User: What shape does this take?
Amino acid sequence: MLNLFNKIPDQILRLSVIFVLIIASLIGVRKLFIPKSFGKYGHYRGDALEEAKSIEIKFAGKEACSDCHSEIFYRLQNGYHKNLSCEGCHGPGKKHIDSEGEFKLEKPTSREFCLICHSYLPARPTGFPQIEPNVHHPPERCIKCHEPHNPISPPTAAGCEVCHTLIARMKTVSSHYSLECITCHSVPMKHKFDPRKERPSKPTDREFCGRCHFKMSQAPSYIPRIEKENHGRDYLCWECHYPHSPEGG
Amino acid sequence: MRSSRREFIKILGKGFIGSGAFLIFYDELFAVYRNSEAKGEYYGMGIYVKRCIGCGRCVDACKKENDVPEEPFFFRTWIERYTIWEDGEISVDSPNGGKNGFRPLEVENKKGILRAFFVPKLCNQCDNPPCVQVCPVGATFKTPDGVILVDKNYCIGCRYCIQACPYGARFLHPKLKVADKCTFCYHRIAKKLLPACVEVCPTKARVFGNLRSKSSPLIRFMKMNEVHVLKKDLNTEPKVYYANLDGEVR
Assistant: This one.
């Protein structure tokens, strides 16, 4: 064995020392730079799994809400919105729970928020409840008529729009959208049963419109005003302005 | 060379023993190349395309849960609207990933819509992930439960994986300068919670579950529906399954 070792030429021996050194340093560098958990599960750092798991959650889940808000939760679970998650509308709730209610969640009440789901789009699935936002009571907030935790349509009004649909539709987009029909028309009960015989009243004079539109009126200031004496004095208001139409003003 | 019958039988016997031994150790030898350990969870997602109403609550929840940058180019999940017009033209749009919902499309020349629908998109968590193959440092990987993750402390931001992903599911995080992508909300599923997008979906268009459990909602989804995956011909073997997927979806 020793003989064999002696037979190796000197230059080869020296070279092999250098090789051994290079290989040793490579192993050393590898040890130094490759993280300990590398290769634990595969060709990656095993600790990365734990790091990914340790991120804090922000959405607590629907069940967590039911602990405190059981009454609303019950209503939600038994209505058309039962598939909705509380946090889908109110935002992530983990912070709210951790702070025991100190941190308040969002309460979206705007019409625009409901329209994200319920405005009409051809791409939405058939049968999904949608409305045409320009016609369906603009710009009223949806929550005025629909309770979001148990959304049902308000009972179909045995009201004026059933027969006077065109006028009602036009009125919803006019400046007078917020006025009830009975603000200007007094309707005798019998009109519903015998509409041609018992007619609702119509305003008869300029003073009626003037209750809101004359200069000295007590009505809110955003309502447009006219001078009683020099604005179309010889005419009745509706001879020029059709009160149901958006262009009425 | 001529051999006697005795020698021939000897050779045959050796062959039998050898191949027997090979078969016994086959599993050990090639275990690396196959998913032989069929234990524990293996996650996937199902999507009912017909249920999606394009409200974008999933996109919003994903951004909030995972601190995804708010700028409108970074999404871990997003919604695409496909509109197929009567003249055969197809338009796909995704304003801000669908995060603020969709508005009606501007129609030119009053052409009619043949059909239209929404398709939620996210990382497909491929079983044969091209992004993992190209990573030069082993910073992106498939976990034992089948989720593709990015090790943000190990990623060097070379963008190879972003190029390699055929689904466009990855982006470079503008602050951290590392690759970022959907993790199936790994921190949530580790706590037995649902991913944020599944949690908030108002029409239950997304189904999350364990592919190895017969009772999971995902297996039920796959039993009851005709499912497709995106870009099947690329052999990436996605684990996000779409029910009622239209042929035009890319």
About this structure: The first helix of chain B runs from residue 5 to 30. The first strand of chain B starts at residue 43 and ends at 48.
